[in-house]
């Protein structure tokens, strides 16, 4: 993704999160006549951003009328939001409280936004996102993440399997999420630096990705339910990890 490529995010909460945590990414701000939000205007006084009028009949960035923009739309430099894997890992000293989520061809932006929010909630160190066959970070992703896309590192990786091999060399144990996984996540002890891989919503993990995993984990559930969707499955697994690593939930 080009460093200069703009993604349009919308809604009060998503825009406020950007203004609070990553104001340098905001390249444009469009506000509808009559819009009134004290928190957002207070933040704007601390920036050099000059808002433009928002025409609700012609939304910027190709957004459609069904976008629930609440009278405010911002354009962010998404290339600058993403962090390069090699650069990011220079600052990481892996320990048992270090955990990443790797997205492996997750194509629904709602799922991507939801797992980013869950990863932030459960203390993960970042979400790794490949460029191919994968939903990119969009305005919908940011909105569904409840702005957590601006709080947790989003790490751009070039290839899932190559990244997994590098993480293994750094001491990480790699878990693939699979409905038929032989190891129930509730019985696993996460004693090493950890990375979870979430596969495609329909086909799951690619075969070559399965082969590079150390363990395939599944979620025990009642027989009346065959499976959970991708975002719910990821949330359950990340919670199971987090329950064993309470320090990951602390800012200390």
Account of the protein in words:
The protein has 252 residues and is of the alpha/beta class. The chain has 2 domains: 6-81, 60s Ribosomal Protein L30, Chain: A, CATH 3.30.1330.30; 92-249, 3-Layer(aba) Sandwich (Alpha/beta knot), CATH 3.40.1280. 30% of the residues lie in helices and 21% in strands. It has 9 helices and 12 strands. The protein has helices at 12-21, 38-44, 78-81, 85-89, 109-121, 139-144, 160-169, 207-212, 230-243, and strands spanning 6-10, 26-32, 52-54, 72-77, 82-84, 99-103, 126-129, 154-156, 173-177, 183-184, 194-198, 215-218. The chain has an 8-stranded parallel sheet. Strands 1-4-2-3 form a 4-stranded mixed sheet. Strand 6, helix 5 (109-121) and strand 7 form a beta-alpha-beta unit. Helix 1 runs parallel beside helix 2 (38-44). The longest helix is centred in the C-terminal third of the chain and has 14 residues, at 230-243. The chain is elongated and about 55 Å long. The model has no long low-confidence stretch (mean pLDDT 93).
């Amino acid at each position: 993704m080009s460093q200069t490529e703009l993604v349009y995010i919308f809604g009060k909460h998503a825009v406020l999160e950007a203004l609070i945590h990553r104001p340098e990414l905001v390249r444009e701000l469009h506000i509808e006549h009559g819009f009134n939000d004290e928190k957002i205007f207070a933040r704007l006084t601390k920036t050099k951003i000059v808002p433009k009028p928002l025409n609700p009949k012609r939304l910027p960035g190709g957004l459609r009328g069904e976008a629930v923009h609440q009278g405010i739309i911002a354009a962010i430099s998404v290339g600058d939001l993403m962090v390069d894997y090699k650069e990011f890992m220079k600052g990481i000293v892996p320990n048992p409280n270090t955990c990443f989520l790797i997205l492996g061809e997750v194509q629904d932006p709602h799922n991507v936004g939801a797992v980013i929010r869950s990863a932030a909630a459960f203390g993960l160190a970042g979400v790794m996102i490949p460029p191919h066959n994968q939903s990119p970070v969009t305005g919908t992703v940011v909105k569904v993440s409840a702005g957590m896309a601006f709080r947790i590192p989003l790490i751009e990786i070039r290839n899932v399997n190559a990244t997994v091999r590098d993480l293994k060399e750094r001491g990480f144990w790699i878990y693939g999420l699979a409905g038929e996984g032989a190891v129930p996540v509730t019985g696993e002890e996460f004693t090493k630096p950890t990375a979870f891989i979430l596969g495609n919503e329909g086909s799951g993990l690619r075969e070559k990705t399965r082969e590079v995993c150390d363990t395939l984990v599944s979620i025990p559930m009642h027989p009346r339910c065959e499976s959970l969707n991708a975002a719910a499955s990821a949330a359950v697994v990340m919670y199971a990890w987090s329950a064993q690593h309470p320090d990951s939930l602390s800012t200390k």
